[in-house]
């Protein structure tokens, strides 16, 4: 059986340092030993230092069954500990292995159970003191109001429980640069409180491990890593130690701590809203180990912080939130006029700036700009709006460093921070904060966080105070300010919509007045055309008739022909005026819709048309028609127009046959996106028409044939359509050239109709 170690010896370079595989170092710290056991209890991994703790050698036990090496009793204790759901794996298992007492922590890594054993400590004797300290801490915690006060208390409490020389609460910003937010230290140590550290001090993969494993211990910075050995039975065999207590640390991190002069560390993750909010970083300036019980007590300190972050930040922001809420209430209570003057009034109102503690505000509505307070020029505001839209922040956008998004603005003194809201249709509101020049104290130059020399890659070795002046950015916008701005921007958007609606309403009111006046004029014209023009037409007809009938003086043939044409034109004009009068009268009809027997309407219509039907030798085939809701006299006009049309456009090659069919019972029929229940179809065998003209034939004065060939006013079918619209129905035509025409009329449902 061949055995190999799994130590990761990959060289870390500038190009791969952010991807250093720190979760698979293949080695551990020497204050305990590690076993990797398969699910069937075969020892597959073992550290080289097991012989320092028990009378065993790693290469002799690899591949062996656990019970064969440590006994059946020990295996049963481990099995019960792993599988007993009532016992949390928070507390280590106290177990005897080869006559030695250990505290064993267990976790699963893929298909391997990792057992990490440390000699049993005297930590239990300290439990009473730890409990008393924790109770006192909880009591003191209730007396703190701000998050900073709480963190200071946690730093003090953690140092008292653990005994480390320095305890720091390390808080990350949005880019994971760190700040020492609170600190408790030995009096002889220089303070780190307020110092900043670049994000490169804790790279991405380290932050990911802090999220997985919330407690990390280094007992002795000068330790010699202990390799993990395994059976060489597969290529690239490894062991993920992300959750390991004993996991060996990155050589770069060890060198970083040595450069700081640290001898031992304890790090506790502070996780808030599934993000690494910060760390409790404990430093000791000589080697130091603490018992599992003390580790858990220290971890509990971190829970106190993360459980209180939202509450304490709320306390910190309460006064600001109260002021912004008051300003929002006053602004929304303003009774502004529905005019552009309202934006001028609004901009001059002091509450608009208090709303989010801004120094200036601008409202851009259409081509007008309204401003108040410290604001940039109109031209600069337009460039800001264009720049933000280029980044597709078209609805809302907030920053305290505008220069990162809109470069080349000729200075950011008055516009470093903005809250931008789109108000629709190109309108915007922007609040401004001026530049706040800040001085940040770094623990060493952040630009020199990584050093490369002839020996390779190293962390920085200088932590001397390094000050940086920050320009082109404002103080940050707080959540209450951002929320208040968003709320009022929404209200302002509604105000603009109301203004636009008011303007549209006024515009339509004016148009309505113009339309009303125009309609009145048209009605006057219609009155003239249908009444005043009747008199001269009658005189023309009378004179021509008298001339033609005067026997004393017989006119020439040419004169007779001219007079006959004049009479014919006058008759045609009179018919046209009568049809126009009928068409316009439909609009003003006051008769209501009622139940009508279409059989009765058809019978009366055929009776009135008896002479023309006989003259044309027309044949009618009629089914029984339904009762519908309509206006009786209009139905009679409709039937008359359709039947006259069929006779007028009869084919000269055959006798006219007109079939009238209908729905027997109410049935749903969809046409023109409306639902109808009754239909009647008039089918003839006349000259028909091409279907492309099916819509145009219902337009007033629309004709498919010349007057010389077929007389008529071009109003008949338009009149039919208007009648059906007046009765809430519809009409359509289907034509086949030289074969005939089908005209179908549709009637709306009677509320009492049964449709099954």
Automatic annotation (TrEMBL):
Any one Pfam family match given in the protein's UniProt record, by short name: GAF
Protein's organism: Flavobacterium azizsancarii
Membership in a protein family: In the N-terminal section; belongs to the phytochrome family.
InterPro entries: GAF (IPR003018), GAF-like_dom_sf (IPR029016), HATPase_C_sf (IPR036890), HATPase_dom (IPR003594), His_kinase_dom (IPR005467), HisK_dim/P_sf (IPR036097), PAS-like_dom_sf (IPR035965), PAS_2 (IPR013654)
Positions in coiled-coil regions: none
Catalytic activity: ATP + protein L-histidine = ADP + protein N-phospho-L-histidine
Domain Phytochrome chromophore attachment site: 146-303
EC number: 2.7.13.3
Residues making up the signal peptide according to the UniProt record: none
Protein name per the record: histidine kinase
Residue ranges of every copy of the Histidine kinase domain listed in the record: 528-751
């Amino acid at each position: 059986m061949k055995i190999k170690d799994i130590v990761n010896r990959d060289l870390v370079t500038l190009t791969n340092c952010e991807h250093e595989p720190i979760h698979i170092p293949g080695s551990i710290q020497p204050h305990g030993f590690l076993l990797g056991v398969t699910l069937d209890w075969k020892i597959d991994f073992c550290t080289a230092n097991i012989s320092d703790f028990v009378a065993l050698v790693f290469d002799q036990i690899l591949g062996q069954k656990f019970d064969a090496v440590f006994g059946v009793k020990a295996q049963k204790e481990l099995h019960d500990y792993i599988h007993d759901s009532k016992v949390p794996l928070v507390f280590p298992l106290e177990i005897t292995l080869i006559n030695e007492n250990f505290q064993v922590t267990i976790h699963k890594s893929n298909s391997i159970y990792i057992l990490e054993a440390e000699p049993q400590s005297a930590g239990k004797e300290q439990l009473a003191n730890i409990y008393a300290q924790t109770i006192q801490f909880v009591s003191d915690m209730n007396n703190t109001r701000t998050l900073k006060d709480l963190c200071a208390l946690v730093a003090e409490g953690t140092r008292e429980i653990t005994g480390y020389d320095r305890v720091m609460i390390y808080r990350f910003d949005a880019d994971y640069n760190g700040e020492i937010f609170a600190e408790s230290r030995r009096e002889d140590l220089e303070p780190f409180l307020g110092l900043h550290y670049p994000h490169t001090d804790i790279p991405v993969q380290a932050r990911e491990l802090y999220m997985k494993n919330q407690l990390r211990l280094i007992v002795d910075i000068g330790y010699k890593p202990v390799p993990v050995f395994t059976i060489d039975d597969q290529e690239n065999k490894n062991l993920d130690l992300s959750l390991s207590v004993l996991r060996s640390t990155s050589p770069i991190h060890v060198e970083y701590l040595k450069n700081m002069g640290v001898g031992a560390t304890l790090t506790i993750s502070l996780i808030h809203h599934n993000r690494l909010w910060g760390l409790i970083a404990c430093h000791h300036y000589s080697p130091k180990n603490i018992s599992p019980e003390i580790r858990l007590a220290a971890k509990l300190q971190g829970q106190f912080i993360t459980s209180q972050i939202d509450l304490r930040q709320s306390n910190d922001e309460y006064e600001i939130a109260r002021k912004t809420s008051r300003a929002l209430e006053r602004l929304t209570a303003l009774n502004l006029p529905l005019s552009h003057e309202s934006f001028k009034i609004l901009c001059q109102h002091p509450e608009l700036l208090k709303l989010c503690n801004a120094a200036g505000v601008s409202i851009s509505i259409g081509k007008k700009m309204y401003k108040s307070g410290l604001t940039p020029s109109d031209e600069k505001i337009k460039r800001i709006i264009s720049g933000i839209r280029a980044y597709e922040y078209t609805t809302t956008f907030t920053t305290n460093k505008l220069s990162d998004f809109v470069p080349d603005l000729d200075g950011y003194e008055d516009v470093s921070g903005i809250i931008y809201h789109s108000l629709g249709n190109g309108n915007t509101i922007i609040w401004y904060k001026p530049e706040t020049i800040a001085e940040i104290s770094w623990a060493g130059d952040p630009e020199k966080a990584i050093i490369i020399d002839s020996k390779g890659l190293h962390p920085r070795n200088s932590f001397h105070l390094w000050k940086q002046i920050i320009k082109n950015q404002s103080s940050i916008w707080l959540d209450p300010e951002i929320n208040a701005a968003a709320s009022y921007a929404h209200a302002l958007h509604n105000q603009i919509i109301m203004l636009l609606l008011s303007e549209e309403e006024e515009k339509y009111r004016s148009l309505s007045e113009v339309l009303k006046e125009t309609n009145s004029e048209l009605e006057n014209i219609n009155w003239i055309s249908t009444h005043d023009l009747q008199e001269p037409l009658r005189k023309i007809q009378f004179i021509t008739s008298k001339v033609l009938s005067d026997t004393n003086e017989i006119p020439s043939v040419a004169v007779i022909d001219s007079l006959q044409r004049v009479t014919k034109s006058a008759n045609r004009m009179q018919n046209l005026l009568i049809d126009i009068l009928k068409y316009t009268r439909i609009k003003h009809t006051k008769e209501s819709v009622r139940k009508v027997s279409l059989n009765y309407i058809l019978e009366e219509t055929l009776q009135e048309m008896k002479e023309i039907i006989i003259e044309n030798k027309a044949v009618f085939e009629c089914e029984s028609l339904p009762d519908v809701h309509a206006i009786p006299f209009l139905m009679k006009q409709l039937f008359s127009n359709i039947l006259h049309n069929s006779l007028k456009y009869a084919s000269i090659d055959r006798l006219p046959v007109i079939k009238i069919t209908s729905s027997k019972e109410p049935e749903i029929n969809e046409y023109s996106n409306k639902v109808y229940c009754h239909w009647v179809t008039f089918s003839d065998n006349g000259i028909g028409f091409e279907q492309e003209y099916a819509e145009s034939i219902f337009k007033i004065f629309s004709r498919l044939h010349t007057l010389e060939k077929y007389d008529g006013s071009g109003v008949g079918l338009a009149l039919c359509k208007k009648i059906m619209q007046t009765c809430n129905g519809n009409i359509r035509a289907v034509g086949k050239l030289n074969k005939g025409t089908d005209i179908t009329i549709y009637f709306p449902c009677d509320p009492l109709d049964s449709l099954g």
